[in-house]
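Hey, sorry to bother you again with one of my protein questions. A protein chain has come my way and I'm curious about its shape. It would help a lot if you went through both lines with me. I owe you a coffee for this, so here goes:
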Amino acid sequence: MTTNDDNTSINNSSIIVSIPEETKEVITPVPWRSLFIVLLVFIADAFSFTTLAPYITEFVVDLGVVPDGDMKKIGYYAGLIGGSYYVTQFFSAMIWGWLSDRYGRKPILLIGAAGSCIASFLFGLSKSIYWAIVTRALFGLNGNLGVYKVYLGEISDKTNQAKVFSYFSVSFSLTSIVGPIIGGFLASPMKQYPALANILPARITSFFKYFPFILPNALMSLMNLLAFILAFLYLKETNRALLTKRENVDLEVHETDTPIELETEIEREEDVIQDNIADVDQQYEDNNESDLDKLQDNDNEEEFKQVPSSWREYLSKRLNLDNEIFKSRAPLSVALVYALLGFVNIIYVEIMPLFLVLKPEDGGLNFDLKQIGILNAVASVIVLFWTIFASPRIIKRLGPTRTLKMGKLNGISQSGVALVRSIGPIIGGSIFSWSLTTAIPFKMYIIFILMIIVYLVLLGIVLPLPNSLDSPKNVPEEETAGET
């Protein structure tokens, strides 16, 4: 009797001990190959943007639109070139998102890489302001930032998503550091390195003299070409609705055959694509074809419609005005803060090179291309350290804003930032050039004063936000259980 009681006690104790082991959350391994390739495509695309700032002033002068190379009037044209990128990005971002839902993430990313490859090279051949604006606008047509994020969301889940997206942030920070150095050191090679005339053939030196900005852009073009090739060969599709459609067609044609190797590799890759996929894919999962089975019972069944048949339908679904974010001032205030931050940031990025190249008698620092590139790189290093070390501690101490995690709010904010960034360079550059040629107080510093005023407005928007935004809203018990 005692023995039985002892055995029972042992069995019970073993059961009690095993429960924590079984319920312990397992961290899903990061799909490194897919992550590496998509980040490579993103980095190649981002380099095309971050290399421009150091040489934008000399670029405008080389186009011949500024009489006598007057640096005071460069801002107008630099703003037009910089703004054209964001104008087309604003109008194309939603369309690319819809196309990626309908035709897959991979083809859209490939189109973006190919477009950046072509646009980079053509921009380096610019000899007129119109050519420069058009080719720069071609960059904006590659509105794939949202597609990158969706792809990362689809190859990750709640156990490794933070880690996956941290690589995305670090990748952009690295391009912000290395990009200005590439642009500053490779632009106008014959002017910066006159000794090359004694080394290179005459035809090459003549080519570099006529197209002084082809070298950094040709390098970016090659990087995008490499990213395109690797993505074409190894990048896996992650749009589950599209994969389901392909799988059903394959089963109809080969009912007794084993799945083809491509499908097998996709399934292996999808072993690490978990239930917490991106919101875009969840909306249209498993119902791309009219003959597919009806969705399983759930309270939000009406939201899971077929893939939109037009981009207008896609846009109306993405901007659902009945969503709770439109019923409160706080979420839209957060979106406005994000947009204004983007507005001030892009003005700063566009204005600083103009300020740095001015002669000391005009209030500038008379920097050359290399110095501008190094300064931008150092500034980006500081931002990177702030992002990695200081920002998380501040957020932990003061509390994160919950609404920043809302998918639709993030989409609206992205669109808002793209819009203000399209007009920011034009407004900032115009004000800067106007202030240098007009007798007004503070002269060129007026643009920096206006930026400070915008920051004060931001402070006025943020301070009234309720502290309740830092607390999770209607978080299911299973989510909070692992956080205690």
Summary: The mean pLDDT is 76. The domain at 32-236+326-470 is CATH 1.20.1250.20 (Growth Hormone; Chain: A;). The chain is about 70% helix and 0% strand.
